[in-house]
Design a protein that fits this description.
Elements lengths: L4 H8 L1 H8 L37 H16 L19 E2 L4 E2 L4 H10 L27 H11 L1 H25 L5 H14 L8 H12 L7 H17 L7 H6 L2 H12 L7 E4 L4 E4 L1
Antiparallel strand pairs: 1-2, 3-4
Helix pairs in contact: 1-2, 3-7, 4-6, 5-6, 6-7, 8-9, 9-11
């Protein structure tokens, strides 16, 4: 049984994955990204955001939270900044444990961050082939080789990835969790992992839609309790993964639904994410220290 989302795609076959996840966007006017572009300050998609500043967790807790999702994404607790592969799933080249894609502006934003430290990086030559300049018919020959070489040559590219992931995924997830009264470490991990996989769009399978359903069907944190709310949230998320509204993604998402079981186990057994953190379900078993 595949352990990570990457292995799921390989397991079902590249052709099958391309069919399951949909084709490359057909026009610049309608790129239809499944993941959010860089969010505006204060609001992401339809997610509730706090009016005042939200304190981001300490760096060690952030590392542990990200490590849990790393297990689901790349099959290891350690980040894999050198991962780059065209899986034939319509996303172009996904890179790193964060799954930044070349079919939308995510990789562009990472490279632009990296340019501040390495203005002569050979990755710069790919920018004219990436969104927002070019959405289709991208000429990215040699991209994977250059990406891996730059990761090995400079720590700053990995740091640029972390910074962009914080802007796109981590900070919005923590802010949204805080806005609805979720404050526990496992709650932050659940919101982060959900945003990382589902995105912050307006579709029925996104984090905002999952959160809206959980609130409507089960009440707020204040009306129940944080553990009860998070359990209900995970139940809604698993139902989305098992029966997504997008029929083209349903096969792949069903194969990843057990990551919710691992998060549910942590909610029950280690909600404060005290090391060692055992990340386990029927498919995986890993320890975050």
């Amino acid at each position: 049984m595949p352990k990570s989302r990457r292995e799921v795609l390989i397991h079902i076959g590249l052709a099958g994955a391309a069919s399951a996840l949909g084709a490359m966007p057909s026009s610049a006017a309608d790129p239809a990204p499944s993941r959010p572009a860089k969010p505006d300050a204060g609001r992401v998609g339809g997610m509730p955001m706090p009016l005042d500043g939200t304190r981001i967790p300490d760096p060690e807790l952030v590392r542990r939270i990200k490590a849990i999702s790393n297990v689901f994404e790349v099959g290891d607790v350690e980040p894999d900044y050198g991962y780059v592969e065209n899986l034939g799933d319509g996303r172009g080249y996904p890179v790193t444990q964060y799954g930044f894609c070349t079919y939308n502006s995510e990789v562009t934003q990472v490279i632009e961050r990296y340019l501040a430290h390495a203005p002569k990086t050979p990755l710069k030559r790919f920018l004219p082939e990436l969104p927002p300049i070019k959405w289709t018919e991208q000429k990215l020959d040699g991209f994977a080789h250059v990406w891996r070489r730059e990761i090995q040559a400079s720590k700053f590219l990995g740091e640029a990835c972390d910074e962009e992931a914080n802007v796109l995924f981590f900070s919005p997830a923590i802010h949204s969790a805080t806005a609805v009264g979720v404050k526990s470490p496992i709650g932050m991990a659940i919101f982060y992992d959900t945003l990382l996989q589902h995105g912050a769009g307006t579709d029925a399978d996104s984090l905002p839609s999952i959160l809206k359903r959980a609130l409507e069907e089960n009440g707020s944190v204040a009306a129940t309790s944080e553990p009860e709310f998070l359990k209900a949230f995970l139940d809604v998320r698993k139902s989305v993964l098992e029966n997504s509204t997008n029929h083209e993604t349903r096969h792949v998402w069903r194969a990843s639904a057990r990551r919710v079981d691992a998060l549910g186990k942590l909610l029950k057994d280690n909600p404060n994410l005290v090391p060692p953190i055992e990340v386990a379900n029927a498919d995986i078993e890993a320890t975050v220290l």
